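Recall the central idea of this unit: under ordinary conditions, the amino acid sequence of a chain determines the structure it adopts. In this exercise we apply that idea directly, starting from the sequence alone.
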Amino acid sequence: MALGTMMLPTVITIVPNFVLFRSLGWLDTMLPLIVPYWLATPFGIFLMRQTFLGIPRDFEEAAGIDGANPWQVFWRIHLPLAKPALATLAVFTFMASWSAVLEPTIYLTSPENYTLPIGVMSLKGEFVGNDQLVTAAAMMSLLPMLVVFVLAQRYFVRGAVSAGLKG
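Accordingly, the structure predicted from this sequence is:
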């Protein structure tokens, strides 16, 4: 079911989401831009499910023999082994929410609440003929994504190395 929703374009869910966010009182706040991305996306569900299915059951059984309860097994075994997938999911989620243009234009009405991509797009109208200013603003808006990627890069490398190992 969750994978089926990946095939739906975002545009299809805009109206139901708008009605939902209006009833929650979230319009013209950052909540509709943050909460849906960070709770559960179909990609995140699929990625984390595959990650946890790839962890050998032997680790759980060994921890159970040592007296660990299910919470300790999750916290001390599953979570550390899932760090590369969590880092990947965090970077992808941050990139999707940071560069979103459609959702902020629908859910936000106050110019002071606009996101950076909307601000860069509005520069295009203000500085007609000054493409270098718009390009500089667009390049500066990429810096936070670059910083997040550099910080999470070591987890990507660990995930790629451990993906090739079979036990």
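The mean pLDDT is 85.
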